[in-house]
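Quick one: co-fold with T4K.
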Amino acid sequence: MDEKVMVTRSSMPDFEEYTREIKSLWETRWLTNSGVKHRELEENLCRYLKVENLNLCVNGHQALEAIIEVMGLKGEAVTTPFTFTSTTNSIVRKGLKPVFCDIREDDFTIDADKIEPLITEKTSAIIPVHVYGNICQYEKIQKIADKYGLKVIYDAAHAFGVTVDSVGAGSLGDASMFSFHATKVFHTIEGGCAIFKDRAFYDKLNEYKNFGLGADGEIEFAGSNIKMNEFSAAMGICNLRHIGQSVSSRKQAVLRYRENLENVNGIRLNAERENVKSNYAYFPIVVDPEKFGKTRDDIFTALAENNIVARKYFYPLTSQNKEFGGAYSASETPVANKIAQRVLCLPLYEGLSNDTVDRICGVIKSL
Ligand code: T4K
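Sure, here it is.
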């Protein structure tokens, strides 16, 4: 049997580089609570992403919950059901009702043309997702938000380093969340950040992430504890040094996939846009069973039989989570429903060889 191929694999700096980076922690014994590494990584990321007001957190999910809380969002949020459950969970856990909007057929992001009819007097925010690193229709979304006085919060978990018209994804909307989980293009083992347009929210998050402790030592409000520790920040400092190499290695694998699968009848690849610089975070394919002759699940199984682990990111729709007890029908978002039944993310990571990509595509084409 050929070597097992997982859907992704964490990028790692050299062991010596990381141990050099953390050596000083043995001298200072300062391990968390916004230490030297934490501050250095925040500065480095602001420079790399060309943003201000970037606040590191323990993970992306908690960063998104924190954004919702510090911005005081209430009532309803218009969002997408075609995402990792974290997006929807954050909305629900902060006491808002998610209102699910359908997605676009070509790039799987929220369909801006379908948002307006979903807005009620209770709506406080639009929470779209740059799914797979595909940038949402941000201009249209902003226009709608301005018209109704809503906040726009992007779940940019997949969009690290992506730019659109030379603008960083983190600069769009009122706030964005990036995930720095081990499975992401850039990681800090676990980690994430919130980026705000308004500095006041950055300051408020500094309090939120440290129990609500204000500068004067008083507790301003019931905050949480979602600080990134120094070992994670050190991992981020190392990984950021090599991000260029990491992205170009992923790009090579993506180009090889495209060569292999571009002309396979019934398999649609993620659309590329000229004004978008990609980070090659995921490689989703959409399978049309009528044209291809087999289903997404047939491909999933055939790959598994060949020791290749693909993933059904994102199936099922988050509107079908059990906690909603069937309150939302998948047929209310027909495009999202169809894509969720047909999408499959193929393995993609730094160092994925052309031979392995050919092996994966060979299994698919053999069907
Ligand atoms: N919003 C969106 C749109 C998201 O996709 C996510 C996270 C979030 C919000 C929340 O961000 P975080 O709070 O996580 O920062 C994974 C990740 O855990 C999750 O971060 C990610 N999205 C989601 C799409 O995928 P699983 O359950 O599929 O991961 P798992 O453990 O099966 O790992 C997948 C593969 O990755 C493994 O087969 C091997 C490789 N791997 C995994 C780990 C944990 C490594 O190479 N190293 C590792 O340490 O959820």
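If it helps, The chain has a mean pLDDT of 97.
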